[in-house]
Design brief:
The chain is mainly alpha-helical and 502 residues long. It has helices spanning 3-16, 22-28, 31-35, 37-53, 55-64, 76-90, 96-132, 137-180, 182-217, 221-234, 236-261, 266-293, 306-327, 329-349, 361-364, 370-391, 397-416, 420-457, 462-492. This is DUF7847 domain-containing protein.
Length: 502
């Protein structure tokens, strides 16, 4: 299979049954939400420690006696004086126990991120292999998470060790050369740079195809490295073509992200790269490697127009979202209670700072550009909704923590707002759509958590779990449509209509 045929097969595979593959890539956006549970637990423990030891009460009393109005940032002496007056009031919070809790929480967060990323990657590539073989991708991905996560973790560790090893060897060679003679050191540095770059490029090339070798050959780390190396030796043109395409896509995404950062579209680009570029590249290299092994099933081209598929997908997404809301009123009630409850907690938590620390919706709207703002709101909010929903597969807790975190932030922001009437006026038009959409995503996260737990215990089949993931994909399409309308209102209507009245 040449590169052109592989690209055509990739496009047809993605278009034919997107809901049988993309849920695992949506799950990839939820990795940070799952991982930050460690830090959230540590911060909750720190807060409890402050409360039980009276340190928080001491800090509150000390702060209440101070004028916390921030000084003019252009006056260094005023800033220094203000800092020196506030620092003693915060000394009760400088607890070794709190420092230990936060440090452990950060370490756990990093560990969770690594393990979750390995598991999600195993599911993604296994789903891709299932589609390449002509089977159902989601069931293959679910099986791959349990069976191959350790292998993928091993691949990442092995590549990291090779990069570190090559870099250290080059550094030692250069240092030794300079110890003998400066001219020798310069020559060794040049040779080490050139050789090191070639070696690292070869390492990256091998480990680019190693994940495909794992899922196609059903092998371990050593077998995957050997299989990827064999593929590159026998198909150097295909391997090089893929690497050129991958680098080109990476450069295009980086350029788009840089360009759209000024237009507020960075979040939309990041989401597109995660759920379009990433699965396309994984499919492309797996098709090339699978053809090398002779396991690629025929892929028929899609006759339907992209526009018709897009419109049909939106309609199905809306139907699935409405149906999900009607079937799960209890889950939505739980989500609303969590969101509103933590909103109240956020409001009360910042009470000592009300009047001293302020937020201003009118200041945040200075320089507001409706088209760019709408694009930014859409990208951010849909990303949050997707991550919240699929984070729920990690046994519900991350989905609830995401809703709680957003409620806490909104409650605190509202309490510190210097013109609350203006904030309410700004939020209401788009909030009547955006907030329910986020609650739907939270309820969907709880639902997926329950399904994943029942599957883990064996009371549900992998097919049933796959059905739930596919349905979640379509529900989130409906949520995305709702958020798109809310983002348009937030960009073009919410900042302006209330100004003549307030």
């Amino acid at each position: 299979m040449d590169l052109s045929s592989a690209v055509s097969a990739t496009a047809s595979t993605l278009r034919r049954r997107p809901a049988d593959l993309l849920p695992f890539y949506l799950l990839g956006t939820a990795v940070p939400v799952v991982a930050r549970i460690g830090l959230f637990v540590a911060l909750a423990g720190t807060y409890l420690h402050y409360e039980l030891t009276g340190r928080l009460a001491d800090a509150r009393r000390a702060l209440a006696e101070l004028d916390l109005t921030p000084p003019d940032a252009q006056d260094p002496e005023a800033v220094q004086a203000w800092t020196e007056s506030v620092t003693p009031a915060l000394e009760p919070l400088a607890s070794p126990t709190a420092l230990l809790l936060v440090t452990v929480g950060m370490a756990v967060t990093l560990l969770l991120a690594i393990l979750t990323y390995a598991a999600v990657s195993a599911g993604q590539m296994s789903a891709v292999a299932g589609r390449v073989r002509g089977g159902r991708g989601l069931t293959a991905g679910i099986a791959g998470v349990r069976e191959r996560w350790l292998t993928f973790l091993g691949l990442y560790v092995a590549e990291l060790l090779l990069w570190v090893g090559v870099t250290l060897l080059a550094g030692l060679a250069v240092a030794g050369g300079f110890l003998v003679n400066p001219f020798l050191g310069a020559a060794v540095a040049l040779v080490a740079l050139l050789v090191g770059l070639v070696v690292l490029l070869l390492v990256r090339a091998v480990f680019a195809f190693a994940p495909a070798a794992v899922v196609i050959d059903e092998t371990g780390v050593v077998g995957a490295v050997e299989g990827a190396g064999g593929f590159i030796r026998r198909n150097p043109v295909d391997a090089l073509a893929y690497l050129v395409v991958a680098v080109g896509v990476l450069v295009a995404i980086s350029s788009a992200a840089s360009a759209l950062a000024f237009l507020g579209g960075g979040a939309a680009v990041a989401l597109a790269s995660a759920v379009v570029a990433a699965p396309a590249l994984d499919l492309l290299k797996t098709l090339l490697y699978g053809d090398h092994r002779g396991v690629v099933a025929p892929v028929e081209p899609v006759d339907a127009r992209i526009r018709d598929q897009f419109v049909g997908g939106l309609r199905r997404g809306w139907r699935e979202m409405v149906g999900f809301v009607r079937r799960t009123p209890g889950l939505h009630l739980v989500t609303v209670l969590v969101g509103v409850g933590f909103g109240v907690v956020g409001w009360l938590a910042v009470d000592p700072f009300v009047g001293a620390v302020t937020t201003s919706i009118e200041s945040r709207l200075v320089g507001h550009l409706p088209p760019t703002a709408a694009l930014n709101f859409f990208g951010n909010n849909w990303s949050v909704a997707i991550a919240t929903s699929f984070a729920g597969t990690a046994l519900v807790v991350p989905a609830l923590s995401s809703i709680a975190f957003n409620g806490l932030a909104l409650g605190a922001t509202a309490a510190l707002e210097e013109n609350l009437a203006a904030l309410v006026a700004f939020v209401v038009p788009h909030g009547i759509l955006e907030i329910p959409a986020l609650f739907v995503s939270g309820a969907l996260g709880i639902h997926l958590g329950i399904v994943s737990w029942r599957t883990f215990r064996g009371s549900l089949s992998r097919e049933a779990f796959a059905d739930a993931l596919e349905n979640a994909f379509w529900v989130l399409i409906g949520v995305g449509a709702l958020i798109a309308v809310a983002a348009f209102i937030e960009g073009f209507v919410s900042p302006y209509y209330w100004r003549p009245f307030l």
